[in-house]
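A reminder before we start the practical. When you read a complex entry, don't treat the lines as separate problems. The point of joint prediction is that each chain is placed relative to the others, so the output describes one connected object in space. Small molecules and nucleic acid strands, if listed, are placed in the same frame. In the example below there are two entries. Take a minute to note the order of the lines before looking further.
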Amino acid sequence: MQLGFLVDLHLCMGCKGCEIACKVENEVPLSTWRLRVKYVDVGTFPETKRTFTPLRCNHCENAPCERICPVSALHYLDNGIVNIDKERCIGCAGCIMACPYGAIYIDPQTQTADKCTYCAHRIASSMMPACVVACPVEANIFGDLDDASSNISRYIQVNQSNVQVRKPEKGTNPHHYYVGGGNVSLNPLASHRVDGHSLFNKITTLPVGGHH
Amino acid sequence: MAAHEILAATNAVVTLDVAIPGIVWPWFVTMNMWAKSIGTGVIFMLFILMRMHPESVKNLRLPTAIAAFVFINIFLLFTLADLHQPFRMWHIFFYPHLTSAITIGSFMASTFLGLLTLLVFLAWKKQDETYDKVFLWVTILAIPVTLYTAALLAQCTARELWQMPAESAQMILAATLSGSAFMILLGGSKLTYEAKQTLGVVLGLSALMAFIIYMSEYVFGPMKAEEIAFTLEYIKGDGPYTVMFWLGQWMTFIIPMVLIVLSRSSKSEAILKLAAILALVGLFMVKHVWLIIPQLLPMS
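Here is the predicted structure of the whole assembly.
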């Protein structure tokens, strides 16, 4: 079994329900996120549109975070999930430096690395990840990539020409796919980032959550 | 900072995202690399002096071993201090993950420190013959101890600026540069003029080669990847790290190279010492800028 995620960006409407469900389910502390939805505004008025891109750990088959972790706090589960053992983590932040997707952070409460685990604890109880359950438009599709009849496999088959992963050139083989993504939504460098401007807040930088 | 490749037609602006994290590896890591360069560099220099100017090293065995011991301890202390869970450091030895450069580096650095402690003891007891036998192995071990940080940087897949083999070359050159500079200052009257000139040549050539690599990356790096181009914007034009970058390049490489030529032509040891001090101070800045700017790259 190799579990994977697919997000249909045609369906996502940026409600952030997945973000909140993740926060609640995993008790993610303030100022940190396991899953977040990025908004990018495209075009010039009146020809404008807004794109929404949920971003989370890509659970790479060839995960740089797992490779660089000196104590195996980051490790693979048999079902393909890249899990983290917070009791093992020494907080060296090597994983944060290695992850090309910016998916790992230092938990300010435990002073250890943390990230999306595809809700491994829920999976173990045969439940779907919290973000999947919360999505009102079923834009988050989760399942077994090894099973050709699973929802995610069929979705990939149907949308073959439109399925993308983030930063494929890194050779990480992410188990996280997007349908309907473009350069603007998937490439961090394809959009302007203006310091001090954001829809709901003005926070642009935060301390890592550590003691430095 | 403007991303250079944004299409005017899309006019794409990120209007909502989480805060970009601050610097993950701060100046503690710069201190780590700087102190390690000196700690291993003085070992390399003593090795060279033993072969080229054996008469000079008679009174340098103990000071060199102590200097290396002190700087490797500084390196290890700052490494420890940089951990968010420093009291779990022992996990590296009891739950080692051997694909990580951090794990391998910790093993090697710990062994290196043990051997340096032995060297200090042997030098103190004036057992020069045994010291020289152990010293050969210490010199050999100093090479991977210097290089492992380059391997660690290379394992940081998200930071394109840190490329192999450029980082390996820079780590070794930083060690020979800082080691020769520190030895010029440490040697004082114990070193003959010829020995100091040899150290000056090592310092000058290390500066030249390191400078060439930095300039090559500065000019040609942006042609390889958009992430490198974006990262280097921080040290170009009115970028926030431009001044620190160029101050470091001048202090560490350009001025010391000129001063070493001058010291050879005027036979001035004072100029040589000035070159050594500038190189040691400047190296910290050079390392710091190169450590920080890749961390400013947006990941989402």
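Discuss with your neighbour: Chain A touches chain B through 62 residues (CB under 8 Å). What might explain this?
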